[in-house]
Structures are given as structure tokens and as C-alpha cells.
What does this fold into?
Amino acid sequence: MAYILIVDDEEKMQHLLSIMLVRLGFSVDRAGDGLSALEMIKTNPYDMVISDIRMPGMDGLALLSAIKELGIPCPVVFITAYATVDSAVEAMRQGAADYITKPFEESRIRMTVERTLGISRILSENIELKRELQGLSMAEEIVYGSDIMARVMENAHRVAASDTAVLITGESGTGKELVARFIHASSLRGKARFVPVNCAAISPTLVESELFGYEKGAFTGADRRTKGKFEYAAGGTVFLDEIGDLPLAAQAKLLRALQDKHIQRVGGNEEIPLDVRIICATNQDLNHLVETGKFRQDLYYRINVFPIETPPLRNRTDDIVLLALHFLKRFSGGKEIRLTDGAARTLRSYPWPGNVRELANAMERVMILDRGEGIVTAETLSFLREMPCAPANNGRFQLPPEGISLEALECELVRQALAASGNNQTAAAKLLGLTRAKFRVLARQAESNNLSLTRGTP
It folds into this structure.
């Protein structure tokens, strides 16, 4: 549903336009002058503005200029009884989307609004595209050659053809979001938005407003109507990462939204149709969370219609060298880098507890150490080693005869967990089986003891 602001100093004209637009299915706000309209535009995400040109105080052209200065991507259509070539040319020169003269037909209003909303969508999509281009990792290819990964991609391709809910499971760093993006891009919704939401990174008190949006005044600090992730992704896909960390109260509201296909903004009563595909991901055992009462069973059944498990890198050793070469080429700016046989053996023998994310970080480090020779040897990869606390087959840690420095070991574990999780403290804490608070204490202790979290231990 589009949100339109009507600006006119004539009450009758406001009322007439409002009736027409509401009848066409739009949501409408009204303002009697340019200054009032500008304040409303600052606090509400309008899809377009229909404004009179001649008004007391701030006129329509001044309002358009103010909107452009604020950088608000909101197209403006002018409507006036003073139809002169000069005013039309000036309005279009300043960036007006269109120009309509009074009196007007409803069909003319409909045509102009529909065309202008198309411009509004393009402006919004351009902003989103710029954001995505800033994060090149979003455009990573899924590189594989192993049979196990081929089966994963075959299942992803099959489910993309439907609107079925998908649950992607797997360890941290195995590429769950990349698989979700592949499903979205391969689906009929591929031209619409893909909106990722990290459920673990949202404060429990803000989950509902993040997902469903909120009305102005809904709570302290809510100074404008704001769309939530579901409304923002209309026609596209919402990717709920770390779904296992969603609070129980938010789980109930998510289930209601998925069942009813409607949402309500926080502080609002309007039923907003839900037109999105849901893809969820987690590195936790949701079955166990259901058994312990930490995850709703009915929501689990709702999101787990088509499960896909992304395998850990240690189970797809055929892909390790392919991925390493892919990352080396990316970090070298397209330059071809060669791996020696010894380097390939080193890569395959390393357990990769951080999976593909850790491999990418390791190859970035290799390129920093590179001397311009274009060859990676086993010596270049000497910084790779077994995690010092890697458990034996019986699950017990074997203390080396020469002993260890517990302080240094803790720092190394913190460093590796951060590297494997892309410096996400919540994910790093999970890798070590700690709470985020406990992990932060460990990290602070390591720093206070002058132990590096970035270079590793000597």
C-alpha cells in the first residue's frame, strides 16, 4: 500500500483528492501548507507528495527544494489552477515528477499517481542497490565441486520454484545466507528485495518493531512512522538468520503473522497484507530447543517445511582448494594465484572450525603476506595449525607433556573464534559454548594482559 501526502491550502481540494486516492486503495495524509507538509515528510516515509504550487508561506516550489536538500527520495507532483508554461517549466526544471492542472479527471490522477509511484520504487531500489554494492560479500559466488554440495544446490534450485518456507541449518560460516540468496534469486521473487535479519543481533525489546515496524509515538523515540522488515520486503524474501535466538514472545507474533498473512505495526491497528517469502537459518539444534521449551513447536513446523543442511567444510574437502583459489583471486584483484601441492595438502588437512568464513579470512591474510610472487606454499600457510584444544576422539583434551599457557590458550581461542565468526561476538561466543557476556570478559582479560587478538600467540 502506497502512502501519499496531499498539500493544499484549500480544504475542499484536500478533501476531493483524498476521496479519489482512498477509493483507489492508497493511504492518505493531508497538510494545509508547505511548512506543515515538510515537518510531516521529515517524520513519515511517504511514497509521493501531491502539492499545490501557490500557497501562503512556503509554496510548492520551495517545498520541493527543501525535500531535495534533505535528500529524501520522495517524488513530488504539482497540481494547480494557475496553468502557465513558465510555472510548468520551472516545476519540472527543479525536479517535479509531473504537473497537473485544475480541474482534473480522476483517470488523470490515477495515471499520474501510478507512474509516479513507479519512480518512487526506482529511487528506493537504487538506494538499496548502492547499499548492496558497498558489501561485495553479498555478491559472492557459491563455489563447489563436491557431491555433497551439489545435492544441497540441487535442493535449493528445486525449492526456489515454489513459495515454500525453507529452514537452512548448519555450522557457523558454512554459507547459509549465500544459499538463501541463491534461492531468492532463482525464484519468481528474484527481482524484488532480499532482506536479511540477524535475530541474534536485535535487542529482545526491539524485535517486534524491527520486523513489523511502528507508528509515530508508539514508544519513546518513535518520532516517525517506520516500515518493518516484512513490509519493506513486500514482494520479496525475508531471511531470518539465527532464528533460534528469537525471543519466545516474538516467536508467537511471527507465527501469527505467518498464519494470518497480515501484520500490524507497533502502536497501530491497520492490518497490512503480508506478501513475502520466509527463509530461516540457524546453527542451533531447533529440535533440542523445542524439547527444552526455548522454541515454539508450532513455529518450528511452520518454518521447517523444506529443510536444507549446509555441510561443514571438513566434510567437503574436494571444495577447499577451489574455494581457496576463488578467494585468492578476489583478494588479489583478479590476479591468478597458484597453490603448490604442499599448500593444497596443508589446506585439506586443516580442520577449518570456522568453515568457509575462516578459509576466506585465511586467504585474505595470505594476500597480505604475499611478496608478489603469485605462489602460495606450505610455508606461506604456516600460520594454520590445529586448534590447540582440539579434542581427541574420546572427546577429552590431552595436555601436552611440556604443558601449556592457559592464558595464551584462552587468547588464541578468542582470536580464532572471532576470526571464524567474522568478528561477531555473539557468534564467537557460541563457537566456544559461552554466553556473550562471558566471552566479552575473556576478550577483555586477553587485551588487558597485552595478548593480541589479531596476530595470534607466538
About this structure: The CA atoms of residues 205 and 247 lie 9 Å apart.
